[in-house]
Amino acid sequence: MKKATTWMLTAMMFFFATVTRAQYVPPTPDYSDTTMWVTLDGDTLGTGADVFYVVSTWEEDWTTADGKVCHYADVWNPTHRAHMAIEMNRAAAYMSHGNRFYAPFYRHTTIDAWLTQNEDTLNNRLHLAMTDVCDAFDLFQKQRDKSRPLIIAGFSQGGRAVVELLKHISDETYGQLAAAYVMGYKVTPGDTASCHRIRPAKGEGDTGVTICYNTVKDVKYVKPVIAGSCFAINPVNWRTDATPAVLHDSITVTLSPEHHVLVVKGYSGSEYPPYKGFINVGDIHSCEPWLYSECLERNFGVRAKAWIRARGQQNIRNLE
User: Where on the phi/psi map is residue 98: left (φ > 0), alpha (ψ -120 to 50), or beta?
Assistant: First the structure.
């Protein structure tokens, strides 16, 4: 019996060692290298915000030439960067209007982790990705002009990164925050309990707040792993109640205060085909940064200006 037990332990150790060896983790990004960023300066007047944007998930699990499985994007792989850059450039096209836009490439965990819909698996694999984002943000924050309003935004896995950044930043940095935008991801009661910097937006122009929303065709399509949020706001009318808003003359967007999601009517989302039976199946996950882009672009300006006004008033009070 003792020999059998010893053999089983040895076999288990060999198995786990083999699994560990069979996995590949890409090299760490160097955020002092401009290759690691997409940037765009659209602030011709020097009066806008600094926007830090975090891209969503673009890669599936892949295998190296020597047969190792990788659960992460490789920022040094030109193809992986090109994939992420599609979204980053598209976001920059409207988020940079009147602002300076910065988006880092990072070792985001692959879609395969999300397909498990297992929170433990996700949390384990997201640790590396979120470490990259925090490292990129720290360098960005160190180098930027602190007199400018700060906007943090992200979509899907990037939305998770926004939540983690709010936990990561100092209260001093939080004082520079015009707003944080969690698009297509959730904020949980645990998040709000553990971080006083996560405060839900109540309207169009409050600052230092978090904007969170997810879009579905019906509340029955809410996927808790992505959209199980404890608060939300309608980015079309900036209401937190069920008052409907009309977008593009034909789309009705109504917030469900009970489920904290946006329910849309008059929009099929057909340009976003279902993916492996997981996303875009009753929900319209892939639309989040694009369907409301005009609303978001305007709101970036509204909140940045509100932050600048509030800072000016504070400076006057400090002089009195």
Answer: left
